[in-house]
Amino acid sequence: MIPDTARPGQRVLVTGGAGYVGSILTPKLLAAGHAVTVLDTLWYGREPLAPVADHPGFTLVQADLRDTVEVRRILTEGAFDAVIHLAAISNDPSSELDADLTREVNLVALERLFVAAKQAGVRRLLYASSASVYGIKQTPDVTEDLALDPITLYARYKAEGEQVLQGLLDDRFCGVAVRAATVCGWSPRLRLDLTINILTSHGINNRVIRVFGGDQQRPNVHIEDLTDFYAALLTSPRELIQGQAFNLCRSNATVMDLARMIQGELGEGVKIDVVPTDDNRSYHLSAAKVDRVLGFRAQRSLVQAVRDLRGAFQAGRVPSWGDAWYRNVAWMKADPQLCRWDGLI
């Protein structure tokens, strides 16, 4: 077996590195001594990566994942040790806007990227899958050994992406899938369409937290813990992660419990408004495997995510919070041509 490059100071390609997770992960990797190239369409601009723009170890390449020729060129010339694949049409509502686009990006371009990465000599690929691949489970804990039963287009392609990766793994190519819970917390490319983020935003700005249903169980993880995990996977022993999938979650709580937690942080003047819903999806995600195998535990509480967001609003770092830029579906609807690049596939 060829030794894997499980060491610091690697050359890393991060797809979607200017996004919600990527704009937190990229500076973290640079601080750890890695050289980082970000491949991103920059649908949401380059400002999220402005703090590292002049870092000597940082390179930003504006390119579309569907541009197979350009992706191959980047991989060949970059001589990367590892690829962290974050880029995707992200979340269920966004994926349903254009089924063809979602398939192009989340499956077809993904497969071509994975194949090209292996051909270019990349030794390790970290894939941002999703806890949504499990679908609806009735078991007390959703663990990695359960069958995948995706019920949305987004989840389906995430699951099929895992299958693509599994089919490419060998002694020269190591791969691992990260099935993260719903992410929360501050990021330079802030998303206000994620459970805790949007409830906190409404509480701060409207003084009313609107809860749809409330009894649904939801797993969440702080963005700092998720990005710490990706950084740790770069140097984790190959034999512990090869072909594995890991759930990552800090805690599970009902939507109503989350609303009450946020209300408690923001003050008694914030009210909770309950609205009936037909979406009663509920599941309890277990993160026992990642602790048992890798000794990794999410450290930040969900309350910390609320406090981080409140601090960002108070500091004026969330101007015009109602703008479409903070919400993926609204941004895509605002400019339907944003995501189209004809002739690439």
User: What is the number of strand segments?
Assistant: 12
CATH fold type of the domain at 11-189 and 220-251 and 283-300: Rossmann fold
Rg (C-alpha, Å): 19 Å
CATH architecture assignment name of the domain at 11-189 and 220-251 and 283-300: 3-Layer(aba) Sandwich
Q: Estimate the strand proportion.
A: 15-25%
Low-pLDDT regions:
none
Name the structural class: alpha/beta
Helix content: 25-40%
Number of helices: 12
State the distance separating the first and last CA atoms: 35 Å
Strand order of the largest sheet: 3-2-1-4-5-6-10
| Assembly type | single chain
Major sheet, described briefly? 7 strands, parallel
CATH hierarchy, class of the domain at 11-189 and 220-251 and 283-300: Alpha Beta
User: What is the succession of H and E elements?
Assistant: EHEEHEHHEHEEHEEHHEEHEHHH
CATH superfamily of the domain at 11-189 and 220-251 and 283-300: NAD(P)-binding Rossmann-like Domain
Please tell me about this protein's structure.
The chain has 345 residues and is an alpha/beta fold. The chain has a domain at 11-189 and 220-251 and 283-300: NAD(P)-binding Rossmann-like Domain (Rossmann fold), CATH 3.40.50. 37% of the residues lie in helices and 17% in strands. The protein contains twelve helices and twelve strands. The strands form three sheets. A seven-stranded parallel sheet has the order 3-2-1-4-5-6-10, with helices on both faces. Strands 7-9-11 form a three-stranded mixed sheet. α6 (195-205) packs across α11 (302-314). The radius of gyration is 19 Å and the shape is globular. The model has no long low-confidence stretch (mean pLDDT 94).
